[in-house]
Amino acid sequence: MHSFRLIVVALLFAHAGVLLGQDSRVPTLDDFMGLQIITAAEISPDGRRVAFTTFENDFEENKDMTQLWVVSVDAGEPLQLTHGDDSVGEFEWSSDGQMLAFMRHGKLSFIRANGGEAVTPKIEAKDIGNLRFGPGARALYFTSGPKDKSLMEACEERYGSYNVVREDGGFKHIWKVDLGEDMGFGDEPEQLTQGRDYSVVEFALSPDGEHIAFSTWRSPHMADLLEGRVFMLAAAGGEAVLLDDSPGVKSNILWRPDGERITYSNGASFPEYADIVVTDSEGADPQTYAMADYNPNLVRFSEKGIVFSAGDRTTMNLYALDPANGNIAQLSSGESRTRGYTYSRDGAAHAYLSAAEQALTELVVVDGDGQPSTHRVFGSTG
Question: What residues have CB less than 8 Å from 245, skipping those under 6 apart?
Fold first, then answer.
């Protein structure tokens, strides 16, 4: 039987007593605006901990802040990993579950999961994203564009320090950097894909770390999003092999644990829902499953099937597609709006964010043993 652990509730810290019924007065807008809210979560590969980010308004400094936290699935006290004036963006667990990579103010950093100082190696690349660790956390893969140092310096001199929210015109490619001791780089980053024939949108590393499946647009421009393609590349580099050039937006690439097949979604047109595609690692024997009732966000691919989340009117639910017969089963209860599903490596545990009616976001962890139990963790920012 699955054990449900509600480990962070109505996140989170500021004014928690007011919102959770410990104060008899009616909450004000200022109470809500002062809350820290969970924005994203990811369970560690071993299923023992969950990393998550919180959002909070800083009215004194006239800005908002996002910080990185980690909490045990056994519902211990959450540990704040990052502090300071810069917000955390994307983050990713290392494959051994011992550290996290994250982006902050446009820079790539690493930090131990049990806390300590973050390490920010120097890297000449811009718009880093899609952070993925190789097996054993010996290498980090990511997408980036080449950094035009003179242009960046000129822009900063003219406009001051700033963050780029969205940029058109920069071709993205896959990079790899070997990791050394103390969370530093063992060598200079290596660019694995090249040129202006395509711009990489996302990628997935095979379970054995030997291959990379990735999706592209013909260019970085939004006008080309329906011209998506899927390629396969050796993780050591070399020539990319085209697997799928059919029309559509291709995303959510996942590997099956045995490394024999991949799956991804393909939205051929708007406003039609995206279909689910399954093929082998060489692009042979592709199978397409039409999604007439769901717009799938793929979460996990295993021998048992493909797990995806999709909206159903005002709720978001979890479903499983059986590739053997095309049947779809609903896995979640549908009692609240859920999102951000993330699974441990073996699939035995998963975490997600849940927001019931008239409630703030909660972080829920489900594991595979024990009786159902609920844990609430509160703190205070003062």
Answer: 229
Query: What pLDDT is recorded for position 261?
Result: 96
Cα 229 to the chain's mean position, in Å? 21
Q: Check residue 90 and give left, alpha or beta (phi > 0: left; psi -120 to 50: alpha).
A: beta
Pairwise CA distance, residues 91 & 113, whole Å: 12
β partners of residue 84: none
CA-derived radius of gyration, the chain: 21
* Per-residue model confidence (pLDDT) at position 188: 87
Residue 32 carries which DSSP code?
A: H
Structure tokens at 291: 């999604």
pLDDT of 9? 39
Report the candidate in 72, 79, 108, 105 with the shortest Cα–Cα distance to residue 92: 108
**What is the four-CA torsion angle of 90, 87, 65, 314, rounded to 10 degrees?**
-10
**Taking the chain (382 residues) in consecutive chunks of 10 residues, what is each chunk's mean pLDDT?**
49 45 63 79 94 85 85 85 92 96 94 94 88 93 76 65 59 93 84 94 96 95 90 94 96 96 93 92 92 94 94 82 95 78 91 76 71 33 35
Please give the model's pTM, rounded to 2 decimal places.
0.85
Q: Round to whole Å and give the CA distance between 202 and 204.
A: 7
DSSP 8-state code for residue 181: G
* DSSP percent split of the chain into helix, strand, coil, nearest 5: 10, 45, 45
SS3 222: helix
**92 Cβ contact partners less than 8 Å away, ≥ 6 residues apart:** 42, 100, 101, 102, 131, 132, 133
Tokens of 236: 């050591």
Among candidates 51, 75, 70, which has minimal Cα distance to 375?
A: 75
Structure confidence at residue 353 (pLDDT):
86
Tokens read off for 33: 């605006």
Which tokens go with 22?
Answer: 């410990």
Phi, psi of 213 (to 5 degrees): -95, 130
Cα–Cα distance measured from residue 102 to residue 88, given in angstroms and rounded to the nearest whole number: 7
Q: What is the pLDDT of residue 269?
A: 84
Q: Is 112 helix (H, G, I), strand (E, B) or coil?
A: strand
